[in-house]
């Protein structure tokens, strides 16, 4: 039988998600997909990660072109459908291409809403909706300094944080006094704003933009109160509007969105609509989960499977904004008719609120810890009555109750069709089936099969709970995952085997321990190389081929193929002579940008590859290791040498620590800071080891992180002398080196190992502390500056810097 022809108009998450469901259900269609963008299906939610630089465009592709070929789908990218001709059963594209259909799915999504104010069409004004917008923002950050983001919703905040990370001075302009007012209450909004301020974002709240100023290019904003804001670049993120033009031009009923019934049918026979372009029962949804729920109903309907009609979605928002987890479901702003249950912890920066109406759970808000989000979403959706049991389960001793994190309510009670992974539309049933039908025992296997956790990773705890629920008693022994897909061995097992068998090289490890891939992969090779160096610091010969490109080159490669060279400045202190040398070398080798870093050093940005060795040679300064999994910087304040508040010599101690620990490999990059007083000008609270001076000595903090997942460091101990300080720092560093997973920051290590356990190993056992310090001293005695080796080795220098390939 000839297959029916199914045409999908729109290559985004909602439409392709529907196609994926049809394929899983065994639907026998001849499928054609049109996408206006030149890219295959990608995860729009992850655009902010591309903007900030932690992911590439390739990283956020959900279905590459091979997937379309493997599933016999005809894909037309860069092609916009302009009309559906019902009489001839044809869809007609802007390039003249026409394709016949039996059924059509419209999934054209939405467009950025651009404020209709004077100046909105000037150069330098963009939305934030697709990869092209992302590219425009990346380009602007290279040329301009100040930016304004109009709109304090999710996209606006993500755009702002991305531009800040790109070095721009960014102000978020918002009409109301609360950020994300459609998802968060006043308390959560205030906490979010405070956190984003700490990350460098500025705010102009309660401001109505009435004009964008400038000639051909924008140069500022004028507000209704007469005040102005300078901006060389403006991002409009004030909302989205359903993209309904195709439906209108085809004679399909359109209101705010394309009007559909409970089976997602439009007013035109055999034409359906899903996603942000769709209006169901008067509502257009802009969040991912409802769009996947629509897609599942439509997929079942199209393959003739039994399905309940789509009756709308309980809107729940679970997001990660600049590393901060937030969640809301149902009603979140209390009124006089609500009973409010709430808890707030300003130290941990967490907040939890549940709203009841006549003792029925009608809404919830979580900030900072969203462990209970799946449970609360279900309770709100079902309209559950609050009981003592539910109260204890949900409030318990979780994020705000002073104890360890809760695991949430049992996943056993979750409905099969409940979406666990909102980014990729993966249901509980899909995960359960993956485990029972394929014998999967790890989250990585589930991720490879279903896509759950492959995007933001926020659903990983729930996936783990489902895995444990399905496997039962066998979970603990079978759920262990190897360090990568090449081996089932964990980090600890690999280290134990290397030590027990006396394995000396990466190839030897992989051969003896039966690696599935003889040469390993980009994930395990650097890890094994690190473990060998940590175990045999005096005899292991570092394997450059196992290093990441930046580490092989001893410099940071940039997107244009040039490099950034970062000389060491101990404790952020330099001399006029060194500054002059940096300036002279920068001029000689046409270095376009010299940037002061967050670690109080100077980046020399834009060095041509062939010039990198000559730059290092003429600088004649130690490498700052800005590219390595090692000590990056020790940030300092001016301390008691100059500051009227200073109680300790922070500059001297910072420089001493940086000189002592430089060049040594760690599981991940390592940062320190030393404050001369508790005023914390050097920001010790967000460093791997932070040191704060007081009148009686030093207080040591560990496990801080100011990156994509910010974490405040934990107070570890207090010491009186510099000698005690060095011993404690050495012991903490070596214990981290010996027990940390490769690429695991101390923020994750502290949470995994437990602060009390680390304290017990180091502070409660003086003999062990001294042994750890002795081992790191032995390892430090073996290190040397990589550029001294490089400059003396003509063969390596020629291979790396005079050939085309890295």
Automatic annotation (TrEMBL):
All residue ranges annotated as the Nitrite/sulphite reductase 4Fe-4S domain in the record: 628-768
Keyword check for Lipid metabolism: no
Pathway info: Nitrogen metabolism; nitrate reduction (assimilation)
Alphabetical list of Pfam families matching this protein: Fer2_BFD (PF04324), NIR_SIR (PF01077), NIR_SIR_ferr (PF03460), Pyr_redox_2 (PF07992), Rubredoxin_C (PF18267)
Domain called FAD/NAD(P)-binding: residue spans: 5-279
UniProt keywords, alphabetically: 2Fe-2S, 4Fe-4S, FAD, Flavoprotein, Heme, Iron, Iron-sulfur, Metal-binding, Nitrate assimilation, Oxidoreductase
Record domain BFD-like [2Fe-2S]-binding: where: 419-468, 483-532
Keyword Coiled coil: no
Gene3D superfamilies assigned to the protein according to its UniProt record, in alphabetical order: 3.30.390.30, BFD-like [2Fe-2S]-binding domain, FAD/NAD(P)-binding domain, Sulfite Reductase Hemoprotein, domain 1, Sulfite Reductase Hemoprotein,Domain 2
Annotated Nitrite/Sulfite reductase ferredoxin-like domain residues: 557-620
Domain NADH-rubredoxin oxidoreductase C-terminal: residue ranges: 316-383
Superkingdom of origin: Bacteria
Cofactor or coenzyme needed: FAD; [2Fe-2S] cluster; [4Fe-4S] cluster; siroheme
Family: Belongs to the nitrite and sulfite reductase 4Fe-4S domain family.
The protein, known as: NAD(P)/FAD-dependent oxidoreductase
UniProt lineage: Bacteria, Bacillati, Bacillota, Bacilli, Bacillales
């Amino acid at each position: 039988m000839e297959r029916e022809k199914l045409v999908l108009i729109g290559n985004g998450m909602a439409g392709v998600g529907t196609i994926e469901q049809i394929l899983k259900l065994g639907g026998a269609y001849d499928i054609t997909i049109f996408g206006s963008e030149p890219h295959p299906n990608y995860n729009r939610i992850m655009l902010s990660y591309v903007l900030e630089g932690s992911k590439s465009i390739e990283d956020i592709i959900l279905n590459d072109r091979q997937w379309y070929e493997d599933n016999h789908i005809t894909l037309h990218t860069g092609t916009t459908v302009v009309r559906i001709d019902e009489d001839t059963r044809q869809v007609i594209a802007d390039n003249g291409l026409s394709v016949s259909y039996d059924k059509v799915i419209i999934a054209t999504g939405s467009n950025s809403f651009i404020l209709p104010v004077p100046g909105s069409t000037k150069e330098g004004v963009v939305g934030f909706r697709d990869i092209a917008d992302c590219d425009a923002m990346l380009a602007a950050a290279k040329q301009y300094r100040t930016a304004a983001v109009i709109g304090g919703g999710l996209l606006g905040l993500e755009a702002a944080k991305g531009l800040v990370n790109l070095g721009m001075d960014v102000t978020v302009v918002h009409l109301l006094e609360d950020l994300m007012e459609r998802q968060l209450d006043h308390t959560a909004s205030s906490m979010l704003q405070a956190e984003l301020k700490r990350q460098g974002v500025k705010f102009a709240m309660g401001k109505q933009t009435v004009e964008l100023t400038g000639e051909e290019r924008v140069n500022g904003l004028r507000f209704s109160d007469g005040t102005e804001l300078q901006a060389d670049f403006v991002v409009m993120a004030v909302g989205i509007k359903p993209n309904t033009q195709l439906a209108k031009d085809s004679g399909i009923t359109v209101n705010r969105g394309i009007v559909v019934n409970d089976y997602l049918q439009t007013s035109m026979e055999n034409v359906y609509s899903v996603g942000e372009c769709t209006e169901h029962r008067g509502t257009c949804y802009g969040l991912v989960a409802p769009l996947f729920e629509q897609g599942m109903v439509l997929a079942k309907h199209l393959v003739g499977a039994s399905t309940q009609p789509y009756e709308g979605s309980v809107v729940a928002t679970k997001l990660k904004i600049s590393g901060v987890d937030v969640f809301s479901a149902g009603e979140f702003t209390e009124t006089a008719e609500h009973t409010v249950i709430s808890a707030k912890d300003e130290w941990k920066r967490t907040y939890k609120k549940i709203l009841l109406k006549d003792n029925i759970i009608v809404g919830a808000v979580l900030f900072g810890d969203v462990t209970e989000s799946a449970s609360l979403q279900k309770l709100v959706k079902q309209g559950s009555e609050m009981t003592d049991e539910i109260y204890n389960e949900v409030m318990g001793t979780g994020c705000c109750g002073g104890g360890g994190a809760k695991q949430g309510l049992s996943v056993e009670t979750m409905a099969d069709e409940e979406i666990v992974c909102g980014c990729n539309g993966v249901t509980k049933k899909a995960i359960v089936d993956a485990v029972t039908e394929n014998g999967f025992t790890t989250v990585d296997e589930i991720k490879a099969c279903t896509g759950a956790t492959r995007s933001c990773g926020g659903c990983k705890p729930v996936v783990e709970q489902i895995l444990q629920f399905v496997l039962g008693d066998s979970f603990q022994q079978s759920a262990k995952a190897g360090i990568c897909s090449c081996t089932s061995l964990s980090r600890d097992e690999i280290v134990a085997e290397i030590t027990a068998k006396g394995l000396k090289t990466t190839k030897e490890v992989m051969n003896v321990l039966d690696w599935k891939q003889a040469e390993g992969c980009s994930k395990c090779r650097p890890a094994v190389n690190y473990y060998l160096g940590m175990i045999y610091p005096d005899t292991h010969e570092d394997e450059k081929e196992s290093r990441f490109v930046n580490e092989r080159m001893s410099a940071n490669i940039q997107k244009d193929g040039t490099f950034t060279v970062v000389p060491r400045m101990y404790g952020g202190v330099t001399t006029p002579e060194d500054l002059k040398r940096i300036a002279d070398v920068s001029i000689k080798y046409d270095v376009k940008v010299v940037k002061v870093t967050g670690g109080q050093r100077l980046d020399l940005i834009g060095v041509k590859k062939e010039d990198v060795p000559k730059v290092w040679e003429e600088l004649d300064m130690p490498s700052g290791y800005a590219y390595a999994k090692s000590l990056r910087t020790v940030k300092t304040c001016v301390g008691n040498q100059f500051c009227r508040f200073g109680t300790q010599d922070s500059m001297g101690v910072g420089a001493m620590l940086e000189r002592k620990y430089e060049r040594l490999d760690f599981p991940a990059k390592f940062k320190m800071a030393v404050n001369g007083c508790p005023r914390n000008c050097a920001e010790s609270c967000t460093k791997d080891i932070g040191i704060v001076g007081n009148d009686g000595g030093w207080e040591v903090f560990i496990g801080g992180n100011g990156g994509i997942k910010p974490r405040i460091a934990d107070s570890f101990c207090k010491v009186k002398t510099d000698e005690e300080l060095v011993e404690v720092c050495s012991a903490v560093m070596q214990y981290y080196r010996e027990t940390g997973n490769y690429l695991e920051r101390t923020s994750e290590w502290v949470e995994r190992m437990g602060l009390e356990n680390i304290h017990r190993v180091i502070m409660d056992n003086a003999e062990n502390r001294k042994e750890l310090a002795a081992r790191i001293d032995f390892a430090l005695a073996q290190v040397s500056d990589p550029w001294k080796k490089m400059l003396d080795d003509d063969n390596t220098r020629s291979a790396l810097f005079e050939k085309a390939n890295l």
